[in-house]
């Protein structure tokens, strides 16, 4: 199947396709990624947002897309763009503004093709990967955090169960929030800070499908909890508590009607209103990861105009 798919796009040793973005970021497409690496001399791979938030690539197309361009040969080289978003007014200049960065194989973390488009994002990504994954610190019970399984512009991670009620089941935990347990409370609160950070958002976008945050991404996030100095952990714990309080304060109680379960009530959270606390977290994590001032600025302001709105500008 892979051979046939690729051969349909090849002419005179060169190829080009428009394919779902799963090419780069899902386990089921690993076979095709391996095939490209075996058969191609190089590939230039650009990655495109697929919905109207903020704008679509083509009218009527709601899929996140990859466009690989390349040439058959050996000694494969991968050149990748960042995950591209744009407002409608930017669409005419979209393709001419794309930047690519060479991604060495040791950066194909989780066997994915990272969505990274310049040397600054590559150096930041490389420093993230030097830390150990959160999964090494998880236990089967103990202090718990809850990570929302869908990510758009912000992560939603809490140390409490967000309010959810429907007519059928009453008050319960929404299945959209997945629990993760830690043996020590200080570790859970440091992890709580880490998962709400822009560093994690960058990590997820670089490797994920930019929508589904499965267990794999939580377990693999290189936070290095065991290497956190006590003073750093204490700072993260303090900011986590402040962040949880701020998120609760800005939450809105919503009500909708479901054909399956009747009236549904739930709390809707707006992490963008708490960006000040997220930035505090990233400033603490910057020392932990060894980010330069330039790399920290990149992380804090990653995709800022799309996450915060077109007129947001930089946040200090």
- Label the structural class: alpha+beta
Order of helices and strands: HEEEHHEEEEHEEEEEHHHHEEHHH
What fraction of residues sit in β-strands? Answer: 15-25%
C-alpha termini separation:
50 Å
Number of distinct beta strands: 14
Radius of gyration from the CA trace?
21 Å
Number of domains: 2
Residues in helices, as a percent range: 25-40%
* Contiguous runs where pLDDT drops below 50 for at least 5 residues: 1-8, 312-316
Q: How many DSSP helices?
A: 11
Global outline: globular
Mean pLDDT: 91
Q: Summarize the biggest pleated sheet.
A: 7 strands, mixed
Question: Any descriptors?
Answer:
alpha+beta, 34% helix, globular, disordered C terminus
Quickly describe the structure:
With 316 residues, the chain is α+β, with helices and mostly antiparallel strands. It is built from 11 helices and 14 strands.
Give an overview in words.
With about 325 residues, the chain is an alpha+beta fold. The chain folds into 2 domains: about 1-115, no CATH class; about 135-310, no CATH class. The chain is built from 11 helices and 14 strands. It has helices at about 1-5, 20-25, 30-40, 120-130, 185-195, 200-205, 215-220, 230-250, 275-290, 295-300, 305-310, and strands spanning about 10, 15, 20, 40-50, 65-70, 75-85, 100-105, 140-150, 155-160, 165, 170, 175-180, 250-260, 260-270. Strands 1, 2, 3, 4, 5, 6 and 7 form a 7-stranded mixed beta sheet that branches. The protein has a 4-stranded antiparallel beta sheet with strand order 11-10-14-13, with no helix packed on it. The longest helix has 21 residues, at about 230-250. It starts with a helix and ends in an 8-residue tail after the last helix. Mean pLDDT is about 90; it is low at about 1-10 and about 310-315.
């Amino acid at each position: 199947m892979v051979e046939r798919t690729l051969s349909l796009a090849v002419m005179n040793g060169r190829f080009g396709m428009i394919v779902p973005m799963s090419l780069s970021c899902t386990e089921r497409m690993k076979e095709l990624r391996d095939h490209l690496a075996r058969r191609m001399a190089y590939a230039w791979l650009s990655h495109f947002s697929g919905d109207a938030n903020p704008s679509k690539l083509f009218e009527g197309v709601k899929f996140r897309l990859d466009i690989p361009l390349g040439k058959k040969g050996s000694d494969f080289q991968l050149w990748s763009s960042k995950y591209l978003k744009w407002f409608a007014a930017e669409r005419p200049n979209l393709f001419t503004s794309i930047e690519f960065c060479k991604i060495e194989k040791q950066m194909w973390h989780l066997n994915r093709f990272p969505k990274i488009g310049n040397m600054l994002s590559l150096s930041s990504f490389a420093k993230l990967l030097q830390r150990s994954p959160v999964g090494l610190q998880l236990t089967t019970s103990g202090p718990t955090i809850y990570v929302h399984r869908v990510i758009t512009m912000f992560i939603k991670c809490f140390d409490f169960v967000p309010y959810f009620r429907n007519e059928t089941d009453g008050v319960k935990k929404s299945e959209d929030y997945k629990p993760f347990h830690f043996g020590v409370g200080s570790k859970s609160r440091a992890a709580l800070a880490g998962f709400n950070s822009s560093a994690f958002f960058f990590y997820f976008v670089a490797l994920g499908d930019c929508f589904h945050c499965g267990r794999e991404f939580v377990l693999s996030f290189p936070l290095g909890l065991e290497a956190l100095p006590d003073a750093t952990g204490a700072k993260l714990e303090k900011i986590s508590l402040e962040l949880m309080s701020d998120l609760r304060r800005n939450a809105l109680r919503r009500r909708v009607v479901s054909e399956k379960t009747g009236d549904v009530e739930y709390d809707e959270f707006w992490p963008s209103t708490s960006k000040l606390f997220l930035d505090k977290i990233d400033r603490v994590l910057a020392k932990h990861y060894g980010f330069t001032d330039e790399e920290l600025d990149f992380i804090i302001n990653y995709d800022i105009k799309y996450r915060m709105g077109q007129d947001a500008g930089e946040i200090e």
